[in-house]
Specification:
It is a single chain. By secondary structure, the protein is α+β, with helices and mostly antiparallel strands. The protein contains six helices and seven strands, in the order ββαβαβααβααββ. The chain has a five-stranded mixed sheet, covered by helices on one side. The chain has a two-stranded antiparallel ribbon with strand order 1-3. A hairpin with a 6-residue loop joins β6 and β7. The chain is globular and about 40 Å long. The two termini are 20 Å apart.
Length: 216
């Protein structure tokens, strides 16, 4: 796959609400029934986050696009869905948890600065139907890939990593800056290109600060 594009402009949460939201009445469907290509591992449910479910739900049209991407995976490889539809209760729980974690890591931050850091990773819950948080629509997908033996591919960070290395184009940036990548870093680079290429060709867009997060 082609290199992951390097965005020149930093992510702006406010701009994500500029596109017009139109209710299309698509149902949420379970994403548990295509084990040949898609498996679920509800990360937040397993962590006991309030408001989460054991089953993974996804908007029907988004699932169709995901199937298209999954069918182009290398033989024996599978997508692993870590988190898709999220209730507002779960969304608030994640905001509160991350805020506590970051306040301990960066006790010098003011409240506005702390919330700015929080919003890099977790959107605030919203009851405004024209400005929903992405996961609350069933249209945001957090996912990874396992190989034919069920071994997770390495992407350079864990899911939900809060460092700059989680940025999808991080290793592309290292190359552009003239760094020679280690063999492990070349593996991370190629795995990110694989995931990014499969998902974007199926119609998804990537949240640039998280290699695992895609929206439709």
């Amino acid at each position: 796959f082609e290199p992951v594009p390097i965005d020149e402009v930093a992510w702006d949460w406010q701009l994500s609400h500029e596109p017009l939201i139109i209710e299309n009445h698509e149902p949420l469907v379970k994403a548990n029934f295509y084990p040949e290509k898609i498996v679920t591992a509800p990360e937040y449910f397993e962590q006991g986050i309030p408001g989460t479910l054991m089953s993974t739900y996804i908007r029907k049209g988004v699932y169709d696009c995901l199937l298209s991407a999954a069918d182009r995976l290398p033989s024996g490889y599978k997508f692993v869905l870590l988190d898709v539809w999220r209730s507002n209760k779960a969304q608030q729980s994640l905001v509160d948890i991350l805020k506590r974690q970051l306040s301990q890591l960066y006790p010098e931050l003011s409240e506005p600065a702390l919330m700015k850091r929080v919003l890099v990773t977790v959107a605030p819950p919203s009851h405004d139907l024209e400005k929903p948080s992405p996961h609350n629509t069933g249209g945001a997908v957090d996912l990874s890939i396992v190989d034919e033996q069920g071994e997770p591919l390495a992407f350079g960070t864990d899911f939900d990593d809060h460092t700059e290395k989680a940025r999808t184009s991080y290793y592309e940036e290292q190359l552009e800056n003239g760094r020679t990548l280690t063999p492990d870093e070349e593996l991370y680079l190629n795995n990110r290109r694989l995931l990014f290429g499969l998902m974007t060709e199926a119609g998804f867009t990537n949240y640039t600060d998280e290699w695992w997060h895609f929206d439709y």
